[in-house]
Amino acid sequence: MFTPANRNPKVENIIAALLWSMVLATICCVMVLGYKSRFWGVQFDSGYFSYIAWLISEGAVPYRDILDVNFAGTYSLYLFVITFLGEGDLSWRIFDLLCLAVINVSILLYCKPFGTLAGWIGVALFSAFHLYNGPLYMGQRDYFMLMFILGAIYCIARHMERCRGRTFLAVGGVLLGYAVLIKPHAGLLCLFMLFILIVQALRSGKGWLGDAVFFTASCCVAPALSILWLWYSGGLPAFLDVFFNLLGFYSKYVFNINYQFVFMSFLGMPLLEVAAVAVIALAGCILVRQHRLRRSLLAVSMLYGFFHFYLQTHGTHHLYPFVLFMFISIASWANCFRTKAQIVIRVVVLLVLVHLCLNALYRSATACIVFPPHHITVFHQKNRLIQDLSGRLSPGETVQVMECGSGGIHALYVMRYKQPTRFLFDANLFHDIDHPYIKKLRAEFLRDLQGRPPEFIVVFKRSWPLTGYERIETFPQLRDWLHKNYFMEIDAGFYHLYRRN
User: Fold this and answer.
1) Could you tell me if residue 241 is inside a domain?
2) Which of 165, 288, 302, 444 is buried deepest, with most CB atoms within 10 A?
3) With the C-alpha atoms ordered 214, 204, 280, 366, is the resulting torsion angle positive or negative?
4) Distance of alpha carbon 126 from its chain centroid, rounded?
5) Predicted TM-score (pTM) of this structure
6) Which range of residues forms the domain containing residue 429?
């Protein structure tokens, strides 16, 4: 059948036709899914960051007026959307699909040396993956980062292939630097790319110091501009306080993730297949000389994707970088059946490719008919709070929401209501309560509430990392002040709405 010395063009053409048919069918399903997704609404992190962006557009300074542990790159993206595209759900759908288009163009550019089929397989696999999982991860930073990370990897590859000039290297460094501003974990990828640049320069016999310094300086451009902006606006001291004090508390919180659920439901493939893709990517870097550089960059990026997931709270959306580079890595072998590679490599690659393409086609076709398993179109808690509070605040009055991930902040964004404190979530008030820094935050929160009493206080039952109304009992000063000055007007089941006496 397949041997290094004996190729069968007829069989190769049949395999190519099979792969192309699955890819084209998947892309058709993706287009239908993209059109049907026009009604998907803003939810979870999208509503939270939209509220922050709106506050910044109203003159608030990040960290000083908004207590949050995220970096300024996220805020700038959301400011871009609400400023140039609008504040509604449709604007977010347009931006989400525009990001997908940019990622797909980058996939095609990166996979060009591997062949047209490889590029379109990568496009079909990732596009289907992003849409057949439904709107649950729309607006996630891990997804937005891919535009900058993949663009940077492409530019770095072009620089090392051209071996002259530094334009591509500069662009790649700036893009990676901006990715760091979205999630600082991308700094690890910067270090990986710096190491590869140095090794490549040493192997080619040219000086490595110039490229290393230039790339490092390019990666620092976006963070430096962000720090300059915070210094000018007066938010730099608060940012340094968040970075060196508050951020450290988040490292110990992880979800107890069900890995079988993640890979079979979220990714749609067994763990064994994921391991096979990783092994194939590594073997390609070692055994195959053709396009070794680009495959090495993909393998290193997959490694970064693993750490991107592992070093966070193990949310499924944290797998986005790993998933993207895994798909591109296996797609880069799409034409291996036309080569004289060993039969074992060709058979394994072909089986994995066929399974991935069939799975993408099945999941996307199913999602065109039935809502995806993670499809959430109604948020009862957010909608109920809007119903209970909308139109009840006079100009200048505020409402304080105490929750984390329950939709309260999203409701404030919809109603354009502000809070009297800089505390968007109450998560930072109910962990490590004996720590001096948390005590300081508690004192600040209570002082701001007493100094500018809100008309309403909403205590959600669900928060993070602690949940339940009983968490208020661990903050006796707040509990006593709340019961003395407010009465519970509404018990909605999932939140208590308190109104001033």
Assistant:
1) no
2) 302
3) positive
4) 14
5) 0.91
6) 380-500
